[in-house]
Amino acid sequence: MVRLVTLLTAAACLLGSARACYEQCTISAFQGVPPRPLPKRPALQARRAPPPPLLRALQPPLQLKRRAPRPSRPLPQARLPRHPLAHPVTGSRSVTLTLKLQGFDITSTKPSSANVFGNPAYPGYTACGSVTNWIDEMIVSYNESYIYSYNFAYGGATIDAALVTPYTSTVKSMTDQVNDFLTNVGPKPSYAPWTSSNSIFSFFIGINDIGNSWYQSGDRAAFSDTLLNAYFALVQKVYAVGGRNFLFINIPCVDRSPYMKSQGSSTTAAEKIVLDGFNTKLAAKITAWKATVSGVNTWLYDSNKKLGQILDAPTSYGFQDGTSYGSATNLAWCNDYHVSPGVHHYFATDVKNILAGTGF
Ligand SMILES: *[C@@H]1O[C@H](CO)[C@@H](O)[C@H](O)[C@H]1NC(C)=O
To answer: Transmembrane residues, as ranges (predicted)?
Structure first.
């Protein structure tokens, strides 16, 4: 049977009081009509198969292939604001933010066998530059079927700009991203004939929401409820047009990032309380929401726990330590706020295991 999985990733990146653009994504994957028959191969066997070149390249020792800058599009760095933003807590640190993740434009070239992400040229752009991140590996290496990705992730995204203002007004929030999905892909156009069963929607959002607000006055726990209500109102919209498979990724422990650590332990401890509170509420929200709908499959990936494990024992994961950053392949951070492609590789591996046997 030929199977085509189209994945829609609406990601939002976080960026916040620190810079960060993790891709917080919303992925919706659709399986549609496959461009060609898939080779017969049991899913289990596929999982045991030797890793494809990309994966091998990412495994320690990490040897990431870097793509040359595309002259037609500015590199992510070119989009970084050069004006420092005062850090809300210390007022001493500038926040430069991030870049558009992946750089996908739904109005441009659609995903196809030539590029399952559609555009830009693989691997697109990330907060670490033109390198792979977890979704790249999920779609082209750990995939159990042929998958097309609609990745709406956007660097610096918050759930709703009216709730948490992004670092710059042009950032597409998760609300914008879901609306782009609903407008373009939701109606199941000929280029994306997705169905409820052949699609998965993933959401990796919240870093910038908490990063840009945890220090504010007021009841932070109540505000996390407000954020999650907005979050799940969007999830409900995706459900309303047929989404049934949902992958949620919580907020990694960016309170342990080099940038946050430079703010001092009292600052990181204060952020951690709000961040952990959001993650606890996210898990409960997923359970509560699932009880109100039917036919839904949900998965929650605990990126916070995995990053914590890596930072607790970096050398056992192939990293020299938990605090250095740069482009070297043995570093856990590519800059002072974003985890490296090497850490993304571990995220991808975990997500692969969580989705094992699902066809995604
Ligand atoms: C996984 O994706 C790659 C890249 O699109 C594709 O070549 C490969 O056939 C896919 N694997 C399966 C099992 O469909």
So the answer is: none
